[in-house]
Fold these 3 entries.
Entry 1:
Amino acid sequence: MYYHAVKKRKPMELLQNTVILLTGFLLSEMLVSTGTHQRVIDYLLGRSGNNLNALLTAVLLLSYTLSIFISHTIVVISMIPVINRIVTIAQDEEERKSAASLLYLAVTYGTNTGGMASLTGSPQNLLAIALAELYKIENRTLITFVSWLGVGLPATLIQLFLGRSIILFTAKSFCTPSLFSSGRKVPCALPHKPLRLLTSNLILVSTLSGLQFFFKPEPVFLSLNLIDLCFVTYGALFLLVAFILPKKNGQTGVMLMNLIFFLLHLTGSPLIFFSRLFRELESRIGLSLKNIYRTLDLIFTFLFNSVWNRCFQEPITNLELPNTRAKLSINLILKDLPYVGITLVALTGAALYLLVTVWNVQTATTLENYHLTTIKSALLYAVEMFGNRYIRLISVVLLIIFASELLSNSALILLLAPLSTDLGAQTALPPIMMLLTITIAASSASMTPLASMANTIAFGSIKKVSLGIILLPGFIMNILAAIVVAAVFSLLSALIL
């Protein structure tokens, strides 16, 4: 049955999530294009008082706060230019490696923890709600946007405090004096206007998501309800303002040029993807791939100008130059995407898909029953070794956390959701609390780059990250997260149910 759970997801919910992800990413690009991220970096470095601990704390809190409202994956992608810029300030190679690894820990732990704080902060949270309805789990109506936030916020703040302590303890072993230059000019205040733009968009998206969750309005046009139409209109207007409308008033005939420039780059995005991927791989592994990506660049330039010349009779010789006629330049956005990180995510997903496909030698129902029986037996055997039910719960949470270091978070939730009743009976948790425990545990892994999509993208895109530095703190975070998650849901079960 868990294979069919994903099929129950409504297309309009996917549409809304796509709009939120797209606009969140474009909003972050607008802030980068105006230099806001550089001003924030200067502010953080200046206000940290030549203190690495203060800088790490600021990045951790910023990532956590944004991820409560925006997808943690988008927050990571948005923070990558900030992190890479900070890393380049360090003058020594070892300092760069230390700074990159510590900032990687701060941004990934902050985003993953923030994503657990609110119902809309992570796709896994919404998946848990859908599974509770699918399996008709008792007391599922207790889960609302407000109740999740009421529990998630204090619980994740505890995890955030523990994670900060581990990161700062790890930072004691490293020295990065060149990050803090006494001659550096620091703005006296944050750039308020761009940050107000960010805040207003966050409030708008959060309000629309909350209205959709609480009221669930009926369709008014095709299968779209009023909130769906608001999301579609918001997304369309955002694309129009970002890429199509002239950057300056009074520019005539520019909208058509911006539109064709935008569409041609979208059409040629596969060529751009592989060209940029080979460039990144060349810089990372030292293997010369110039002939490949230069050939791809020439092909794209030829195809682009064959259309552009017909329309405007003026070839563009350098497609890496920004489109100064629009607020955002699509070619620069495509250029700066974390292609190695995206590729790692895609390869991981493809490997899991092939594993399931190759293994699927029986009918789906038989295979499903086989999986459930095997997983159920393994988990129940593991927990039955302990007499204390709280220790049993911690062991279950630990197994889920460390399993999600290598397996998809969503796949684990889908796999284990049918076992909520059996596992709850062994750990003294009601089924609904067990389902939520499984969900949060599957999102709590912090050790490896495969722990979450955010971790994978950050590891593939933040330069100089060292596995030797990040593994041990991540391992300790996993252990502490298991204790916190088990304690929170044991306490909730005793107080509420």
Entry 2:
Amino acid sequence: MRLRPLVVAVVTAAIPVVACGSGSTTENAFVPATSLASRLGYTCAQLTDATVRCWGMVPGLREADYRSKPTPVAGLYGVAGVAAGSYHACALVTGGTVRCWGSNAFGRLGDGTTTDHNDPTPVPELSGVAEITAGEHHTCARLTDGTVRCWGYNGDGELGDGTTTNRPTPTPVPGLSDVAEVAAGTFHTCARLTDGTVRCWGMNSDGELGDGSTTGRPTPVVVSGLSDVAEITAGGSYTCARLNDGTARCWGANRVGELGDGGLTGLSGVAKIAAGASHTCARLTDGTVRCWGFNLSGQLGDGTTTSPLPPTPVPGLSNVTELSAGLAHTCALLVDGTVQCWGSNRWGALGDGTTTQRLTPAPVTWC
């Protein structure tokens, strides 16, 4: 999915690096994380040294080559943000440019071709980027001037340019300005404006655009009856918003309780929210986490596989600053820069060096 960028200069001062024992290198030493992005069966972490490490079925790898521990993305430095798509990933580089890697079907890497790239590849003629987000087959960037550019697959209008034509290069979303945040779901995209309202576009078969219909929209439409929004997150076929009063609202598909059912009515103190394919998690102001929705793989972290569930505490987890959610796993960033993950561990998605499913949070193993 998407993370808003934490602008970090290339670090030249001392960084907390913890060696892993004799013979260890900087590649497998612990460096604190600053943000997370998850999708399908992998997660990427932006680190305090402005590099990125990923684990699981990382884009650009064959299935047999998954990574069960954090692995550096070669040649990527000065990173200010990272976004995880289903089959590709992108990094916002300090200075406002973007590099993407992985599958380039439909032009989702934005370089004007459909040639796959295992290494981070610049997105040409794109600058002044403040934030990036990635969906199933598309990518979007919010620029510092408050406008949005999108590229990749457009069969459901998720690029917002009024057509259903795939675009291998960044394309403006017409009529959209004053954007404060952008979030890509599987086949839809949403933008939060500076006035606290939300616009969405793309697939709408489950009502994920929030306009009161199930009609797909190739251009942005207003989410009905929603204001004072502080944060948005787009999941598989649904969308959620955190309001300035610390409550949350969700709309769209609700086949397995991903909207929280009536449980969101009693949920307060929400400080962050993250949507996966069919489950959602929220960090509260006290640093604890509540999750709801599909739980077949233990992605809600409550020690069970009971599903669906209303907002449920994740036991033993505290001091959380960020969350990210994938297909069937969830990860949390703690205040000390460590990461804990839970749920499906297929392809090493939890980063603990195994492929063992975890029903409760387990530390990511850096060594």
Entry 3:
Amino acid sequence: MISAVRETAADVLVVDDDPTVAEVVAAYLRRNGHAVRLVADGPAAVAAAQARLPDLLVLDLMLPGYDGFEVFRRVRQLGPVCVIMLTARTSEQDRILGLELGADDYVTKPFSPRELALRVRSVLRRTDRAPLRPAAESAEVLRHGPLEVDLTRHEARCDGQLLNLTVREYDLLAFLLAHPRQVYTRAELMRQVWGWEFGDQSTVTVHVRRLREKVEPDPAVPRYLVTVWGVGYRLDDPDDADEADDSGRDEADDTGEPDESEPQHGESA
């Protein structure tokens, strides 16, 4: 894995107006050693984050006061915080909007508390921004063309400019930089980058598109993060990317793979 496993308990803020759901989530997270705070509405969530910014926000979308999207925006303005959206909304549009805002994961109700706990663990494993080695040692830097990831400082740059990436986007870029010119399916990226053996593969499509928007000169015609039709994605050299077929086509079903969460239909991210 790219990042070190978090060794200390995380401060988790659970925001859900259903007390039964909130208590079940809190019980499982506390069982895993995390400190959990519970709030039941949007304004209370923002106030709690202002008082102490959590490591992780488990956020329901349908809340009194501010809805989950508004809470997300306000809390993210306070500083970096990981977000798992936990909601009864099952529409693809809501899921895609949450991921495009920068959510690290999206879990729909009804859910398995054990699955949620595993997803929390997966997110938290990648949030520790402290150096993984003493500062006196030289940084481990991955480079490919104009792209650069400093694993020690947890920073990414393109043409020398610092990139504002989410945790998921950073992990994806670092993985691809470590394995240039290799093709990976969405399922392989979910498993090898984020440690997921299950989940909605449209998550990968969304993060690829968002990453392209931040690193490509023209995201509609990607030169680095290209699509290999019928297979998946590959990090190319710019000269090689000119030869990639359909690399800039619409992201809907761009790998030619069926979406396992919606059989017989491609993605429409």
